[in-house]
C-alpha cells in the first residue's frame, strides 16, 4: 500500500510553508453489480439524519438497456431500485445528475437532473419508492442544483446571467428571478448553487468575473419577491478583482456560510491545484489566503475530477483524481477550513500492493463528493479494477472519509454562536 504526501506551498499571500501529513487511506469498495455497467458520468449522493445513504447512477443492464438506478444503504446492506424515467426525446444517457437532497427520514430523498436541450427534472423518494418525475422547466440550462427548505420543500437554482430559483406551488413550479447580474458559464458544471443552512434561510451562490456573490432571503421574507433578497457584495463592480484568473473556466467554488467563508480550487496545468479562501463579500486580493497542492512525483491531474463541496452546515471538502505513467489512477481528499487544506487522505482499493488493489482505468469526470451533516464525506467514482472478471468491467466504487465538523449554527439564526464552532481541517 502506497502513501504519498502533497507539499503545501504559499502563493498569492504571505503564509508559512507547511507540510501535509498523510492520514490513513480510505478504502474504495464496489457497489454496482457486475452486469450493470455505469455511464462515465457523475452519480448523485444523499445521506439523511438516520445515516441512510442513497446513491443514484445511470447504467446499462445485462440486456444492454440504459436506465436510471438508485442504491440505498440501510444499516450495512444495500438495495437497488429502478428510478422511473420521464418521456425523453433520446437516450437516458442525455441525463446529467445534479443533486440528491435530504434531511430527516421523513423528508425522503429528492433528486434533480438536467437533460439535453434545457429540461430540468425532479424526483422524490418516499415510502420506499420513487415517484414519477416532474418537469421543473424546459427553459433551463446545463447547470442546476437542489436543496430543501426549512419545511423540507425542494428549491432549485440554475445557472444563468441572473439568479433564478424555482419552488413548488401546488402542481406548478414557480420561478423567481433576481436583478443581480451573474456570470453565465457554459461548462456543464458551471456554478449554480442553493444552500439552506441550519437556520433555514435559503442562499444562492454565484460569481461575477470570478468574484463570489451571495443572495440571501431576508428573515420572514417572501421567496417569490425579488426585493426580499439581499445580495453581497454591494460595492462598485468596476473595482472588483479576484484571486482566480478570469481565464480559468473550471474553478470549483463552495460557500461556507456558518463560518462566513468562500472556497475555490482550480488546476494549475496538470501538476498542482490552487486552493483559496476568503470572507464572504471579498472584492479585492488582500483578504484571500491561498495554498498550492502539488501532486506526487510522476503523477498528473486529470482534466476533470476536481470537486469542492460544502454541506451548508460548516463542513467543506476537496477531492481530485490523478494518474501515473502506465495507468494506476488515484484519488485524494482533503478537508478544508480557515487554516487551509487538512491532511491528505488517499482513496484506494482494499488489499496490499497487488494487482487486485489497483485500478487500470478511472472515469475522472465521474468523481462525486457529498458531505453529510455529521461531517462525513461520501465519495463515488467509476473505475475498472485490474484483474476484474469479466475483464474491463466498469464498476461504481464508494468510500467515506470522517473527520469533518458537525453542523455549525447559522450566524443569522437565533442562538448563533452556541454551536461547536468547528472549522475542520482534518
SSE arrangement:
Blueprint: E1 7-10, E2 18-19, E3 26-27, E4 29-30, E5 37-38, E6 44-47, E7 53-60, E8 66-74, E9 77-82, E10 95-102, E11 109-115, E12 119-126, E13 129-130, E14 134-137, E15 144-148, E16 154-158, E17 162-169, E18 172-181, E19 193-196, E20 202-208, E21 211-217, E22 229-232, E23 252-256, E24 261-268, E25 272-279, E26 289-294, E27 299-301, E28 307-310, E29 316-324, E30 327-337, E31 340-341, E32 345-348, E33 359-371, E34 377-385, E35 394-401
Parallel strand pairs: 3-32
Antiparallel strand pairs: 1-2, 1-26, 4-35, 5-7, 6-7, 7-8, 8-9, 10-11, 11-12, 12-13, 12-14, 15-16, 16-17, 17-18, 19-20, 20-21, 21-22, 23-24, 24-25, 25-26, 27-29, 28-29, 29-30, 30-31, 30-32, 33-34, 34-35
List keywords for this structure.
mainly beta; globular; disordered N terminus
Short recap of the structure:
The chain contains no helices and 35 strands. With about 425 residues, it is mainly beta.
